[in-house]
TrEMBL record:
Organism: Botrimarina colliarenosi
Entry-linked Gene3D superfamilies: NAD(P)-binding Rossmann-like Domain (3.40.50.720)
Domain of life: Bacteria
SUPFAM superfamilies membership: NAD(P)-binding Rossmann-fold domains
InterPro entries: DUF1731, Epimerase_deHydtase, NAD(P)-bd_dom_sf, SDR39U1
Protein name, UniProt field: Epimerase family protein
Residue span(s) of domain NAD-dependent epimerase/dehydratase: 7-216
Domain DUF1731, chain residue ranges per copy: 254-300
Family per record: Belongs to the NAD(P)-dependent epimerase/dehydratase family. SDR39U1 subfamily.
C-alpha cells in the first residue's frame, strides 16, 4: 500500500470527482483533471480529452500514479428516450475505452485504473444479499454496467491493475438522489416509494472518497468492488430515518403508478427496485467505513 503523488481524474467536475479532487489536493497530491474543453497554458493541471471523438492529450498522463475514471452522463438527468439511453451508455463506454487504451499505451503506466461502475449491475434482487461474485442482473442498467466495465479491457490486457467500483446511491446534499429528495422531505411531502420494501444500498460521499483512495492504494484491489456501506436499508427505513433527521412527517406515499407516470421507464430501476449489495471485498481487505449505518451517515452529510 502506498499513496500516490500525482493522480488523474475523468468526470472531475462531478459530485464524486469534485470531492475526490478536494481530498487529494488537501493531502498535497497533484490532481490532473481531464476536461472536455480546450485547455489554456495557464491551467497546467487540465488535460484535454473528447471521448466522443476519441481525442486525448495522452502525453500529459505519462508518470501519473493512479487514474480515476468517473465520467458519464447523469442517469437521472433526463427521461429515458432511446437517444438519452444511448448517451448514457456511450458517454461511459467511449470514455472508459479511451482512457483504458490511453493508459495501456503509455510508456510510464499508472499502477492502477480505478473506474466507476454502479450497483445497477445487479438489477432487481429483492432482499437477498449480493456480493461481487453475483452474476449480472437484467434490464437496461445492468446491461449498461456490463458494457461499461468491459470497456476497461485494454488496460487490464496490458497488465494495468483495473478496479471497477460498483458504486451505490451516493449520499450528499450537493448532488445525486439525496439532493433531489431533500426539498421534498423538507416540505413534509416525503414518503415511501411504491411498496417501500425495495432495498437501497447507499454510501456516504466521504466514505466513497475514502474507498476510492483505498482501492487506488491497495494492490489486492482489482476487478469488481462494491462501493456501498454495510448498512443497506429498505426504502421504508430510509424514508423514516430521513424524515426523523429533518423533523418532518413522511406520511405521503408515492404509489408506483404515479412514479411511472411522472418518470417513465427509469422509475422502476431507479426508485422501485433495488438490491441488498454488500461491500464484501472492501471489508475483507480491511477497509473501515466511518459511517456504516444510515442514521450517522445522514447526520454526517447533512451537518
Ligand atoms: N452519484 C451516484 O449516486 C452514483 C451511483 C452509482 C454510480 N455512479 C457513477 O459514478 C460516477 C461519478 O458519479 P457522480 O455522481 O460524480 O456523477 P456526476 O455528478 O453526474 O458527474 C459525472 C461527470 O461526468 C462528466 N460527463 C457528463 N456528461 C458526459 C458525457 N456525455 N461524456 C463524458 N463525460 C461526461 C462530467 O464531467 P466533466 O464535465 O468534468 O467532463 C460530469 O461532471 C458516474 O459515472 C456515475 O454514473 C454515481
Amino acid at each position: 500500500m502506498s499513496s500516490p503523488r500525482t493522480i488523474a481524474i475523468t468526470g472531475a467536475s462531478g459530485l464524486v470527482g469534485q470531492a475526490l479532487t478536494e481530498a487529494f489536493a488537501a493531502d498535497g497530491v497533484r490532481v490532473l483533471r481531464l476536461v472536455r474543453h480546450p485547455v489554456s497554458k495557464s491551467k497546467p493541471d487540465e488535460v484535454y480529452w473528447k471521448p466522443s471523438a476519441g481525442e486525448i492529450d495522452a502525453e500529459k498522463l505519462e508518470g501519473v500514479d493512479v487514474v480515476f475514471n468517473l465520467a458519464g452522463k447523469g442517469i437521472a438527468d433526463d427521461r429515458w428516450t432511446p437517444a438519452v439511453k444511448k448517451l448514457i451508455v456511450d458517454s461511459r463506454v467511449n470514455s472508459t475505452r479511451l482512457i483504458a487504451e490511453t493508459v495501456a499505451g503509455l510508456t510510464n503506466r499508472p499502477r492502477a485504473l480505478v473506474s466507476a461502475s454502479a450497483i445497477g449491475f445487479y438489477g432487481d434482487r429483492g432482499s437477498t444479499p449480493v456480493d461481487e461474485d453475483a452474476a449480472a442482473g437484467e434490464g437496461f442498467l445492468a446491461e449498461a454496467c456490463q458494457l461499461w466495465e468491459s470497456a476497461n479491457a485494454p488496460a487490464w490486457e496490458a497488465g494495468v491493475r483495473v478496479a471497477q467500483t460498483r458504486i451505490g446511491i451516493v449520499l450528499s446534499p450537493k448532488g445525486g438522489a439525496l439532493a433531489k429528495m431533500l426539498p421534498i422531505f423538507k416540505l413534509g411531502a416525503g414518503g415511501v416509494l411504491g411498496s417501500g420494501e425495495q432495498v437501497m444500498s447507499w454510501i456516504a460521499l466521504p466514505d466513497l472518497v475514502r474507498a476510492l483512495r483505498f482501492v487506488g492504494d491497495v494492490e489486492a484491489m482489482h476487478g469488481a468492488i462494491n462501493a456501498v456501506a454495510p448498512g443497506a436499508v429498505t426504502n421504508r427505513e430510509f424514508t423514516t430515518t430521513l424524515g426523523a433527521k429533518l423533523h418532518r412527517p413522511t406520511v405521503l406515499p408515492a404509489p408506483a403508478f404515479a412514479l411511472r407516470l411522472a418518470m417513465g421507464e427509469m422509475a422502476d430501476p431507479l426508485l422501485l427496485e433495488g438490491a441488498r449489495v454488500t461491500p464484501q471485498r472492501l471489508t475483507a481487505a480491511g477497509f473501515n467505513f466511518e459511517t456504516p449505518e444510515l442514521g450517522p451517515a445522514l447526520d454526517r452529510v447533512l451537518a
